[in-house]
Amino acid sequence: xxxxxxxxxxxxxxxxxxxxxxxxxxxxxxxxxxxxxxxxxxxxxxxxxxxxxxxxxxxxxxxxxxxxxxxxxxxxxxxxxxxxxxxxxxxxxxxxxxxxxxxxxxxxxxxxxxxxxxxxxxxxxxxxxxxxxxxxxxxxxxxxxxxxxxxxxxxxxxxxxxxxxxxxxxxxxxxxxxxxxxxxxxxxxxxxxxxxxxxxxxxxxxxxxxxxxxxxxxxxxxxxxxxxxxxxxxxxxxxxxxxxxxxxxxxxxxxxxxxxxxxxxxxxxxxxxxxxxxxxxxxxxxxxxxxxxxxxxxxxxxxxxxxxxxxxxxxxxxxxxxxxxxxxxxxxxxxxxxxxxxxxxxxxxxxxxxxxxxxxxxxxxxxxxxxxxxxxxxxxxxxxxxxxxxxxxxxxxxxxxxxxxxxxxxxxxxxxxxxxxxxxxxxxxxxxxxxxxxxxxxxxxxxxxxxxxxxxxxxxxxxxxxxxxxxxxxxxxxxxxxxxxxxxxxxxxxxxxxxxxxxxxxxxxxxxxxxxxxxxx
Length: 521
Description:
Elements: H1 4-12, E1 16-23, H2 27-39, E2 45-49, H3 57-60, H4 72-75, H5 90-104, E3 110-112, E4 114-122, E5 127-134, E6 139-150, E7 155-160, E8 174-176, E9 191-195, H6 199-208, E10 214-219, E11 225-228, H7 233-240, H8 245-269, H9 271-283, H10 292-295, E12 308-311, H11 314-320, E13 324-328, E14 331-335, E15 338-341, E16 346-348, E17 351-354, E18 358-360, E19 368-370, E20 373-374, E21 382-383, E22 387-388, E23 394-396, H12 405-426, E24 428-433, H13 456-459, H14 480-486, E25 497-501, H15 503-508
Parallel strand pairs: 1-2, 1-6, 2-3, 4-19, 6-23, 8-17, 9-10, 9-17, 10-13, 11-12
Antiparallel strand pairs: 4-5, 5-6, 7-18, 14-15, 15-16, 19-20, 21-22, 24-25
């Protein structure tokens, strides 16, 4: 804990000042900083990362078998070719990100162990003042930035989401959330139950199957799965032809995006046919007579939640070999040595792993204020899922639900760099989106259309997220093809952007010295 003396000392120090502060050194922050350095080379910046190293999610998650659930052609950066298999391991992703840091020379700009504990905007200085805890120095400092770029991800690193079930305190075994995997955990000879059915469970179960006596996947609701080789025939052929890796990467990105768009179209136009195809694919990988209807047939339409890809069918191989089993039921209570189900059945367990998801971190759970007044993001309206009414000089990177996260991080970075360049050239000291006269009175809705995308972590946090409107400018689109055209074409002189100008620029433009920012409607 930081001492009172160190807290007091922080207030006496002159804060470091930057043009831009990027919060987070995960995949979003590294990519954003790389493009900022390329497109705005004269701007000073720092990257603040609360963890001890780069990678964010990939540094935190250390459970057996940790791997991407998106292909690395699109989960990787547009500017850095991926040359491995489509689905990558944790270590491969961390190496890729480390290479990206080295390629762009970002190392000296990253402040590891720097946790932002508050952010206050000053209209007087047109800057954000951040309170930052420094882990190594065990102190608190203040830092200032003209622009704040939130790239901290979307879930709470310090604690995963585990529901509270009756009897958990009675259970004499271990209960583990994958987000906090114990180092050196020995599962030899133990019965393991993994609660959950999403990508994390599908990754863990085959990885644990050879390490324990038996592993059971206990799920309340089945998930859609797709299995296939961890390879792409087109990528393999292009590489055999010795095509330049940059070309291979771009071709594969376009192919993967098109394939995903086709799948999304089928989910809307022919959901029953797509459902039959997905379930049939799973059935073909399981033993004859396996109850696919009960255990692998979800009650919702395909792609309302993500379809979990199973590389090389490893989950189904573990089930077919008898090393893993599936139980679809709900929990009545834990007892001393296992779990009693509502059906009356019981599962013996020495170790229970709660692969039940995570809790969302809205803006990193950092308290924001404007001139000392607290900000409630749920009372703001989002501009294209990037900026928010009433919040100056800030952008948030929030990716797609059905496409790779990084595709949107790249688009947002391009927009922010253009915006910063426009502000520099026009002499603007601040900018924020405002509701135009034609936007007044529009119906405000939750952050996303939950009929289209409804993962649990999102549903649990909708009341804390910004609102969306009924026109494209005021929505966070999930359509990459649309946004890949719309975001680069944003008119930065549109009245939706309210700029404030430095006094010298006001006078040069013949503006009154007391002009103030237009407030959000």
